[in-house]
Write a structure and sequence with these properties.
The protein has 456 residues and is α/β, with parallel strands linked by helices. The protein is 32% helix and 23% strand. The protein has two domains: 2-248 and 392-454, FAD/NAD(P)-binding domain (3-Layer(bba) Sandwich); 249-388, Flavocytochrome C3, Chain A, domain 1 (Alpha-Beta Complex), CATH 3.90.700. The protein has helices at 24-35, 66-70, 77-87, 94-115, 143-156, 207-213, 231-239, 266-269, 289-297, 310-316, 320-327, 337-344, 348-356, 436-454, and strands at residues 2-5, 13-20, 40-43, 60-61, 120-121, 135-137, 160-162, 166-173, 176-184, 187-198, 221-222, 243-244, 249-256, 273-275, 303-309, 332-334, 379-391, 394-395, 402-404, 410-416. The chain is elongated and about 75 Å long.
């Protein structure tokens, strides 16, 4: 990814603000720009906007919203910020944590009020690490719906989104970014800009960068978007920008195998367990789905069985992915433990022992405290593996989303948001709090768009 001086012949077109990437982050940034009275062009490498957002559950954590109040949930940005830092063991930059926790509620309500996104709170189960129920999602609880509704909002606001254009070169004049060159269907094209927002996500699709920065997950299933090649970090390196926490990532230890469908962690938080091919439990499942990836991959053949019951399945069906997994036959059902052993191929005696190891009101040998209700027949099971979903390290930024140089000073007109910027998941995988990815995408997209417009 080259960084070159501004071409003497100039640019074919010039726009006030240019956004690279049309996932949730880039589209939110575009809506923020037009809402502030600015003009924007969004370029996207794929044929249609999707990105990693479309592969997610589309849930955004936010504190103190009217959606929570309507559901009788009392929450605050301070409590949210404390939860973020507790999960990451205090490794995050505090000003960034405070910004995201403070702005998340207002951003979700802005999208709902200004662009008619019908958010509601997931209020029937808890996510690990969140002291309150604060996950906001759309009716299908899918990232595909989120990115589609954002795209429709952009189209209604007359935002220009040009697809099949991958940016390859940044042009600079001193410390200012002046434009980009992109590969188009008919060859290279150059666009000049007064401000540039990098919303091109992380580097999970760049296997060399994954091997260098997070070797423990190098061989995991890649469940993110192949276009996440680390462009922002590479450009940043060339510019002298500072990157932070490049070993941080979100894993997931509950991807149906071999179907490759995400199974909501609600099947675990509702009371489910995971066992390996010997029917043995192997960790405290309540820690979170990100660290579950390594735990599952460390088991024989890199797989496990997630065991739950039909009560939990009825909650999980609010997620489209779970319904898709059922339709594909990934979810097995059994009326008894012997039948469960038969449909999974697991050793029956050890399976019965593992099911009995989780007692209501007790803390088991792995440190999991189980509040119940207990698992009861009919049982459900799905074979799963661990996956890498997206990276959480990236360009270090100010609280107005400007990219920082290595000396800490900001570039005047270069912004990074979402996966292109450092997240708030600490330095590894265990610091990831559910929803951190879309939290950074939506809030930083909103902030970057607003600030970029005010400075053009």
């Amino acid at each position: 990814m080259a960084v070159l001086p501004t071409p003497p012949e100039g640019f074919e077109i010039h726009v006030p603000v240019l956004v690279i990437g049309a996932g949730a982050c880039g589209l939110t940034a575009a809506l923020s720009i037009v809402d502030a009275g600015g003009e924007v062009l969004v370029i996207e490498a794929d044929a249609v906007p999707a990105g990693s957002t479309a592969l997610s559950a589309g849930l955004i954590p936010a504190a103190g919203t009217r959606f929570q109040r309507a559901a009788g949930i009392e929450d605050s940005p301070d409590l949210f910020a404390a939860d973020i830092q507790a999960k990451a063991k205090g490794e995050n930059p505090q000003p960034l944590v405070d910004l995201l926790a403070r702005e998340a509620g207002a951003t979700v309500e802005w999208l709902a009020d200004r662009f008619a996104l019908p958010f509601s709170v997931v209020d029937d189960f808890d996510y690990p690490g969140h002291a309150r129920r604060r996950m906001h999602g759309l009716p299908t609880r899918s990232g595909r719906e989120l990115v589609d509704r954002l795209r429709h909002a952009c189209e209604a606001a007359s935002v220009d989104i040009i697809c099949n254009r991958r940016a390859t070169t940044l042009f600079v004049d001193g410390d200012r970014t002046t434009g980009v060159e992109m590969d188009g269907p008919e060859g290279p094209e150059r666009v000049g800009c007064a401000a540039l927002i990098l919303a091109c996500n992380g580097y999970g699709g760049n296997r060399a960068m994954v091997a260098r920065h997070m070797p423990e997950i190098e061989n995991a299933l890649w469940f993110g978007h192949d276009g996440n090649r680390g462009d922002a970090v590479c450009w940043g390196d060339a510019l002298g920008a500072e990157s932070l926490h490049l070993g941080a990532y979100q894993g997931h230890g509950n991807v149906a195998h071999p179907q490759g469908i995400l199974i909501t962690w609600a099947v675990i938080t509702g009371g489910g367990i995971q066992v390996n091919l010997r029917s043995e439990r192997f960790w405290d499942e309540s820690q979170g789905y990100s660290e579950a990836a390594r735990a599952v991959l460390a088991q024989p053949e890199g797989v496990a069985w997630t065991i739950f019951d039909t009560r939990i399945a009825s909650v999980a069906r609010q997620f489209q992915d779970f319904k898709d997994a059922e339709a594909m036959g990934a979810i097995r059902e059994a009326a008894t433990v012997p039948e469960l052993a038969e449909v999974t191929g697991l050793p029956e005696d050890a399976l019965a022992s593992s099911l009995a190891s989780v007692a209501v009101g007790q803390t088991d040998v792995f440190g999991r405290h189980y509040d119940g209700p207990p698992l009861a027949p009919p049982y459900c099971a799905v074979k799963v593996t661990g996956a890498l979903f997206h990276t959480q390290g990236g360009l270090n930024i100010t609280t107005d989303a400007r990219v920082r140089r290595r000396d800490g000073t900001p570039f005047p007109n270069l912004f990074a948001a979402g996966g292109a910027a450092v997240g708030v998941s600490g330095t590894g995988d265990s610091g990831y709090l559910s929803g951190n990815g879309l939290l950074s995408a939506i809030v930083l997209g909103h902030v970057a768009g607003r600030v970029a417009t005010a400075n053009t």
